[in-house]
Every structure is written in structure tokens, then in C-alpha cells.
Amino acid sequence: RAWLIFTYSFAKWGFPFLWLGLPWTGREKQGDAGPLSAAVLLGFPQLLWAFPVAGTQVAMAAAVPLVVSLVYLHQAVTALRWPRWVAPYRWATGITLMALLGGLAGSYRYYVRSTPLCLPGSDWVRLPDEGNAARLAWASHNLRRYSTTFVTRPGVASLHLWSGVEPPTRRNSNFWMSLLTPQEQQEIVAAITDRDGVLVLANDLFLKISGQAEYITNSVSARFILDHFTPAIRVGAWTLLQRPTDVEHRWIHQAWMTSPAQGQLPRLRLRFGADEPRDVVRVTVFDVTSRRVLMEDVPMRVQTSITATDGVWELELPWVAGDLPEAAHVVVARLWDPRGRRIGTVPVIPPFTARPVGSDAP
């Protein structure tokens, strides 16, 4: 994992400075200040970060020693008295590129094994946590279909890009509950007070883990959300909240267990929005927690297609697996198109038991 962070930081932040380690002409003087000046200029933006957290700041901080190492390499190659028949810069170039390409190869394998997000604007985005990828896709599809604007707690600005839904104001930040003043939070409250179709997406578990639990109740925006919104559905640690007076939505991009009749085997029902691709030919059900495939590539020819009247469509598959997943496990359904490409990942909503006849998704 340390090697992964090293190569990721090098590829993202260190690669543009690779030239610092390469004496292009072999005639540089020992006191050449070019690479040293570049290292100073790289370190100066570090002051723009308020404090290091487990995010992009870690990658940038890890890149600084890499760039400094390139400067040292440059200084060493140019300071030593190499014989004329030796081309030291070629050796330096070869060693540096081999190390870089070796690290990038490992990062590429890690990238290929990760889960594609399959959302607008995320063509190259992959996440190592398949359950998290499914939850983000679930949130994005539902926010796009059912909200005119939404608030996320903590702030997840990417969801506005993936869903295509504008935020209520331009005051956005990851931890906006603690960074924005009460007056600035009141602007957000005023923007959503009389607006229809407002949803709130909250991950209060993350706030508790990160020491921000007080902002769930003790802030201007938190008190407004508590007074005017109620939980509608929860997937993992994420909860969608809506006003009690709003109509009950038929949440999409999700799957759940059901049973067509008493005593029969359970079935897996999947619901999608009208704008989601319908060229699904295979479904694989995967237990993320135990890293186990529950149903392998079930073809769509065995499904029952259900036509809805409110712009959503559903698929129903027989549960051909030998057993049901455990209640606390994270389970997803992988969707494949005719060309063998994954076109989506859908969370399977617990409980993993057959619901009564005629029951709907939670």
C-alpha cells in the first residue's frame, strides 16, 4: 500500500517535474539553481493547505520528497567528474523511467481491478470500494430524477456534476457545516425554504468518525434539516431525506429481494430510471464484504420485465444462488452490456430475505 501511495503521488504530482533529474546537456555547473528554484516553487503552494487531512493533501505532501530526490539526482550527476565516454544522463534517464514505469504498471493493475463509476463526467473514474461506487451511483441517479436541488452533509460536490443538478448556492465545501458562518448557512436555508423538490443526502456516520458529530444538530443548517426533513431511504451510511409533505418516491438504481408467492424461492428485482441504459444482458451478484460471487452472470433471457407507468422500469431475476447473503454484508449487482462492458453497479438493499407478495422496495 505504501508503494501504491508512492507511485500515485509520483504519477499525479511528481511526473511534471521529472526533467529536474535529467542533465540534458551534461554541461550544467555545480551551482546551477534551476532545479533548486523549481523545488522551492513547488514547496510554496503547500502553505495554501490549512492542515493535512486524509485526502489530496497527503498525495501532494508525498510528492515533495520525490521532487527533491530528482533535484538531488540532478546535482549528483552534474557535480561528479564523469569520463567523457560515459553518458551519465542516459543512465539517470533509464533508471528514473524504469522506476516510474514500474510504479505506473502496478497502479494501472490496481486501476483496472477497481470499479468504474459509470456516471456522466466520470468515464475514467474508478473506485477501489465497489460498495461505495454502487452507493454513489445510486445517489446520483435518484438526485437527478427526483430533486431540483439538493444539499449533501458532508459536502460532496462531485454529485452535482454527476447528477447535473445545481447546488442551492455557490457556498460549497466538504465540511461546510463547520467552515461557513451562521450567516452564510442561513443563505443556504433561505435558498431551499420555499423551493420544491429539495432533497438532503447525509452521511452522519462519517461526521461522527471524523469528529464533526456536533454539526448534525448544532448548526443553523442542521436545525433546519431536523425540523423540515425526514429520512426516506438509507443505503449503507448514506441517507436520503425529503420533506414529509412530498410524495413518496419510487427510488431507482437499486435492487432488493422479493417473492412472487408464498413458499416460492426469492427473486431479485432491479429498478431503473427511464434514462438508464436498457441493454443489460447479464447480471452478476457480488458480496463485497466476503469477496464472494453469489450469482454468476445470470442472462437476461430468464428475467421478467415489468413495465411501470411513472417513467421507471424493472427487471426480476430468479435467485439461483445456493444461499442468501448475511444481513450485515454489502451486496451489489453488476450490470453488463452485450459487448461485455460493465455499464453499472447497483446496490442490493437489505434485508436479504423474501418480502411479502406485493411489497415494494424500502
**Sheet of most strands:** 4 strands, mixed
Order of strands in the sheet with the most strands? 3-4-6-5
* Secondary-structure content class: alpha+beta
Q: Which overall shape is indicated by the principal axes computed on the Cα atoms?
A: globular
Q: Helical residue percent? A: 25-40%
Q: Kindly state the mean pLDDT as a whole number?
A: 77
Span between N and C termini?
38 Å
- Helical element count? 10
H/E series, N to C?
HHHHEEHEHHHEHHEEEEEEEEEE
- Give me the count of strands: 14
Low-confidence stretches: 23-28, 355-359
Rg (CA only): 26 Å
Proportion of beta-strand residues: 15-25%
Please tell me about this protein's structure:
The chain is α+β, with helices and mostly antiparallel strands and 362 residues long. The protein has helices spanning 2-14, 34-43, 56-79, 88-113, 130-146, 158-163, 176-179, 182-193, 204-209, 220-228; strands at residues 115-116, 126-127, 149-153, 198-202, 230-235, 238-242, 254-258, 267-273, 282-287, 292-299, 304-307, 312-318, 331-336, 342-347. 35% of the residues lie in helices and 20% in strands. Strand 11 (304-307) and strand 12 form a beta hairpin. Helix 1 (2-14) crosses helix 3 (56-79). The longest helix is centred in the first third of the chain and has 26 residues, at 88-113. The radius of gyration is 26 Å and the shape is globular. The protein starts with a helix and ends in a 15-residue tail after the last strand. Mean pLDDT is 77; it is low at 23-28 and 355-359.
